[in-house]
């Protein structure tokens, strides 16, 4: 099944009430720690519909996260099925689920670890104020590189001409994805967006 790489908001700092009625305070430091410990190789958080206990079926995977201005963003590979459902307005809210720092299933004790990201239909999200995912087509935004040089990929095609074409393709793909990141998170500079794109593509 085809995947599309997307960036979208999943959580924010503040006092929030869990589905079981407990009030939990998330600081920006908590979010930064969550980003720092997350590793798809250790435990990959799937994209799901609602909040299934077994985290199935999966409609994509979170391969990284960033936090900016007290908001947590997921960098994810999203299935074309979920992209179509979101664009059709079937699922327009997001709800993140975390392992508690002291829970025995937490792969990184001491920090909140992302368990899954639930896409909600009629169910209202517990955390309000997030920008709903749109998964729109890439915009024709103008991006300025701030003198930031893009690096060649590790692939080495046969000829110098093929290598140049491959490099130009990689540059445009990274540039377009960085522009999408800036559309979703305007606080990101172009250099920061490129850095995050590189990090997730290197995974």
CATH superfamily of the largest domain: Herpesvirus/Caudovirus protease domain
Distance between the termini: 19 Å
How many domains make up the 3D coordinates? 2
Tell me the radius of gyration. 18 Å
- The number of helical segments is 4
Give the biggest sheet. 6 strands, mixed
CATH class of the largest domain: Alpha Beta
Poorly predicted runs are 139-157
Mean pLDDT: 81
Helicity range = 25-40%
> Structural class given helices, strands, pairing?
alpha+beta
**Number of distinct beta strands:** 8
Description:
- This protein is α+β, with helices and mostly antiparallel strands and about 200 residues long.
- Helix content is about 25%, strand content about 30%.
- It has two domains: about 5-120, Herpesvirus/Caudovirus protease domain (Serine Protease, Human Cytomegalovirus Protease, Chain A), CATH 3.20.16.10; about 140-203, no CATH class.
- The strands form two sheets. A six-stranded mixed sheet has the order 1-6-5-4-8-7. The chain has a two-stranded antiparallel sheet with strand order 2-3.
- A hairpin with a 2-residue loop joins strand 5 and strand 6 (about 70-80).
- Helix 3 (about 160-185) packs across helix 4.
- The longest helix is centred in the C-terminal third of the chain and has 25 residues, at about 160-185.
- The two termini are about 20 Å apart.
